[in-house]
Each structure stands twice: as C-alpha cells, then as structure tokens.
Specification:
By secondary structure, the chain is of the alpha/beta class. It contains 14 helices and 9 strands.
C-alpha cells in the first residue's frame, strides 16, 4: 500500500509504516537537514533490499561521502524526498512532483502532523499572542487539500495534547475546526490520546493520534494493541561503549554482541556500525550537579529539586519554577521522561544514570528512547555530523515502534 508522509521530519512515523509493508511514494519536509536524513534512510532501504548493505556500512564508518552513497541509489528513490515548505506558493509544484512519482498508482494512506509548536502549551505560554496569529495553526487546511486530491482510504494525523485546548482568535477549537474540514473533504475521524510506553517504547510520550477514514459513517477507532511492560529504561543503554562527558565519536563504533533483549524486541539492535554515540562536553559545575542528581536518585530514589543544590552550584536566579531542570534518565523505571527538541540546547534534563560516566545522554541513546534503529543516521545540511541537528530531529519525531503498532492495526482493519 502506497503512502505520503507530510511534515515528515526525520521519518519516525514513516519508518514504522515501512516496517509493516507500506511503501512511501513521497516525503514532504521543510527542514533541509531532515530531508537529507530521509534521503539517507531511502538509500539504506534500497541498499539493504538489494544486497548492497556494505555500501551503507562504508558510509556509516565515514569511508565514503554522502554523494558517493547516493550514487548507488536510483535517482527516483532520492527524489521521493520533496524538500519544500507546504504553502500556497509551493502546493501545485508539490502535487506535480507527487503525481510524477506515483504514476498510475493510487495513494492509499497519508500520514503526518503539522509542526506542534503552535499547539503546544509551552509554545503558547512563551508567545506574547499565545500563538493565535501563527500561520502554523492553519497548516491542517493544506493537509485537507492533499486528502481531497489523492483520496486515500485512511489518514493518520499526529500532534501534541495541547491541540485539544488550542483556540483561534474567535475562541473556536482548532481541533474541531480540523475535524470539520476533514469531514468536508469526505473523511470521518476518530482520535485517542496514545501513550508510547503502552506500546513497547521505554519513554512516557502522550500524543493525539487522529485517524480518518474515507466514509460518511462513523467507524471504530483502530486502537493498536498494548504491549506488556517487560523491561526498564536501563535496557536502552546496553551494548554501548562507556564514555565520559565530551567523549565518543560520530562514527566508527561497532555494535557489541551483549545487549538487552528489548533492543531485539523493538528492532533497534543492528549489526551496522553505530553512529552518534558522542556525549556533550560539560563544565565542572554541571558535572558536579550531575553527580548530585544521580546519587540522590540511586541512593534515595528522589528527584533533585534545584533549590536543594549547594549555593555555589546555583546559577539560575529563578528558584521558584522549573525546579526539576536537572533530571536523571532513571534506569530502573519502566519509562523515561519525554524526549523533546529542547535536548538540542542542553542535556540537563537527560542525565545518564551511570554516575561513573557522569554525562548527559548521547544522540544514539536518545534515538533508542525514540525507538529509532541503531542503523538510522541523522544528517545535517552540510553533510558533516551535527549533534545539535540530530538531537532536534530525534526530539521532534514520532517513536518508530508506536508508528509501527498503529500501522499494524491499520493493516488488520484495512478491508473492514
């Protein structure tokens, strides 16, 4: 079954659907770094499926350039990534590209969710106008135009919980405006708030998953099957080299044989070289705070309140809010705190649980929390590895395993 991925980001949602046998016709994404990530993943799937996996391994080891990698892949596979902003000035160009890529085939499914900043509670709190005049509030109208043009059987629309309470200038719910718009183009919709840790992801991450079906009658929401909670967060870190703050490499690591069963169950472990296991450098003050945070959790199972720190370690004037700004990713819990794009700015909210390593988590460890497979490579626009770009792409993504569970349930009910 063929699908389009709109507002594709780094491709977490798409990867889950590919695992269940769906075939992407096109990914549409604005950010150039994420577009290259999508192209490189297309290259991976092509090479893996055609017995040329060693070419991809050479790229991960840094032995060939990105252009040399892409030279092994048919141009149409790379062209399936449409790096354009969706808007009035680009829509017809995007349609034309998709029409050329799909040929005579139908589009069976559309997936994706517009950028969440305009709907998130944090984004609205930080904006003087509460994001009410932000153009991103209305990107769903373009989504509806894709639905109207390609008439897929289903669509899967993902977004943050803040969407449920976001209102326009006149006090209308954006979420209800969306659903009305989707009904106008022929789709009934149902939604649930799904928590990723119910589906094998070792991370607390709640998201609205709205599913639309091309029908004029109500339908039962195809809720994915809940996965038993058999593992704890420590499984995320197994098999990776022990490194200190400022240590590690963007490339070259070979996977170790000893790793947790969860990495196999979640289809994360890979025999390809591991990339992006590189820790941020930190000043000595931050590292001393990290030691306090981890020791307090390991010894007393307590989270650090910023006001508890010795005065010589405090640098923030604000000591009444955000008191949990330093937080360990606790190895013995069933799920970690939510990985968000702010991890691209600092790692204080994502401290590694091993006090001997004394650092924040690496992009690879964050990617594992988001259930990206270890062979997933995160690009930058320049082609040079970028920890910041990788963190941002990872934090904005849909967990791959959650996407896969949604895809599996859709396959199950497809003909119903």
């Amino acid at each position: 079954m063929k699908f389009l991925d709109l507002f594709a980001g780094a491709g977490g949602l798409s990867e889950g659907f590919v695992r269940e046998g769906f075939e992407p016709v096109a990914h549409v994404e604005l950010w150039e770094a994420a577009c290259y990530t999508l192209k490189t993943r297309e290259a991976f799937h092509y090479l893996e499926n055609n017995g040329q996996g060693e070419v991809y391994a050479q790229y991960l080891r840094g032995e060939i350039t990105r252009d040399e990698l892409y030279a092994h892949v048919p141009k149409e596979r790379l062209d399936s990534v449409i790096c354009k902003e969706i808007g009035d000035n680009t829509l017809q160009t995007i349609f034309k590209k998709i029409d050329g890529l799909k040929g005579e085939d139908n589009i069976d499914l559309i997936v994706g969710g517009p950028p969440c900043q305009a709907y998130s509670l944090v984004g609205r709190a930080r904006d003087p106008n509460g994001m009410k005049n932000d153009a991103r509030n209305y990107l769903y109208q373009y989504y509806a135009r894709f639905l109207n043009r390609y008439q897929p059987r289903y669509f899967v629309f993902e977004n943050v919980l803040g969407l449920l309470s976001a209102k326009d200038e006149e006090g209308h719910s954006y979420f209800e405006l969306m659903r009305q718009k989707f009904r106008q183009v022929g789709y009934q919709t149902e939604y649930k708030v799904l928590s990723a840790d119910d589906y094998g992801v070792l991370q607390k991450r709640k998201r609205i998953i709205l599913i639309g079906k091309r029908t004029d009658v109500e339908f039962d929401y195809p809720a994915p099957d809940v996965v038993p909670a058999n593992y704890t967060v420590g499984a995320v870190f197994s098999g990776l080299p022990r490194i200190q703050a400022g240590e590690g490499n963007f490339r070259y690591y070979s996977p170790r044989e000893r790793h947790s069963q969860w990495l196999d169950d979640a289809h994360i472990f890979s025999t390809y070289p591991i990339t992006y296991h590189c820790a941020r450098p930190n000043c000595e003050r931050d590292l001393e705070i990290y030691r306090h945070v981890v020791a307090l959790w390991n010894d007393e199972r307590q989270r650090l309140n910023y006001s508890q720190l010795p005065d010589e370690l405090k640098t923030h004037a604000n000591q009444t809010t955000f008191l949990d700004r330093f937080k360990v990713v606790a190895a013995n819990k069933r799920a970690s705190q939510t990985v968000v794009a702010h991890i691209a700015k600092d790692g204080h909210y994502y401290i590694h649980p091993d006090i001997e390593q004394n650092r924040s988590i690496t992009p690879r460890e964050a990617a594992r929390l988001q259930t990206f497979p270890d062979d997933y490579y995160f690009e930058s626009a320049s082609g040079k590895p970028s920890r910041t770009d990788a963190f941002k792409q990872i934090g904005n993504a849909v967990p791959v395993l959650l996407a896969q569970k949604i895809a599996a349930k859709l396959v199950e009910v497809w003909d119903g």
